[in-house]
Each structure stands twice: as structure tokens, then as C-alpha cells.
Amino acid sequence: MLVEWLIALLLVSGGFFVFAAGLGLYRLPDLMIRMHASTKAGTLGVGLILVAVAVDFGDLGTVAKAIATILFLLLTAPIAAHMIGRASYRIGVPLWERSIVDHWKEREGNPAVPVKPTAGPPDSD
Questions:
Q1: What is the rounded distance in angstroms from the CA atom of residue 92 to the CA atom of residue 21?
Q2: Which stretches within the chain are classed as H helix?
Q3: pLDDT (tens digit, 9 = 90+) per residue, 88-121?
Q4: Nearest to 45 by CA among 16, 5, 24, 68
């Protein structure tokens, strides 16, 4: 009885985080913020659902596959989000108009420069 409640709690919690990740992708204003929502909440949600599956089935093969999948997600999601964000910044995808500081320009040797709102990608000079 207690195990069923634990599984239900894990599934509902995981479903909530996956829903929050999807809602973040739909509602948030720019690519960088959307990636944050999808990688953080999505990975946590899928991880909780996989833990529920491992607890429910309980055999060694299923538990090993669930653990391997969770580790794979924890290792690849941040790296993929970083690479997508870096590529989008380099090709000129505009940041949200209410962004205050562009930290990547700061890393290029410029002081922290307030972001200017743009309607599209910057002009190439």
C-alpha cells in the first residue's frame, strides 16, 4: 500500500515538472530562458517518472535501465542546452528585450554592456 502511494507521488510530481517544462517552452520569452525551463524541469520530471517505473517493476534489468537513462539525461541535457545556447548567440538570435546584462559580451573583453532591444538579428558588418 505504501509503495503504491510512493509510486503515485513520484508519477504526479514527475508529471508536474514535465508539464512545467512544457509550459515554460510555451510561455517564456526567449531561447535562453526556454532552454533553462526545458533542461531543469524536464530532466527532473523525467527522472522522477523513471524512478517511479524502477520502484514499480523492481527487477534488476528495469532498475538498471532507469538508472542508466537518468544518468544519461543528467550528463547530456546541460551540455546540449549549453551548445544550443552558444550557437544561437553566435548566429545572432536576439535576447529578450528586458534582459539587463549580456554576460557573453563581457567575456569577450568588453565591460558588462546593457542589452539593446532588437527586432531581429544584428547587422553583419
A1: 25
A2: 2-27, 31-57, 60-91, 103-107
A3: 888 888 888 887 777 667 665 554 445 555 555 5
A4: 16
**What domain count does the chain have?**
1
Q: How many Cα neighbours within 13 Å face the side chain of 112? A: 4
How far apart CA 15 and CA 17 sit, in angstroms, is 5
pTM of the model: 0.76
Domain that holds residue 83: 2-107
Give the three cell numbers for residue 22: 512544457
Domain annotation covers residue 123: no
pLDDT digits (tens, 9 = 90+) for 46-84: 999 999 999 999 999 999 999 999 999 999 998 999 898
How many residues are given for the chain?
125
Number of Cβ atoms within 10 Å of the Cβ of 43? 20
Q: Would you say residue 117 lies in a domain?
A: no
- Read off the DSSP letter of residue 29: S
pLDDT the model gives residue 91: 85
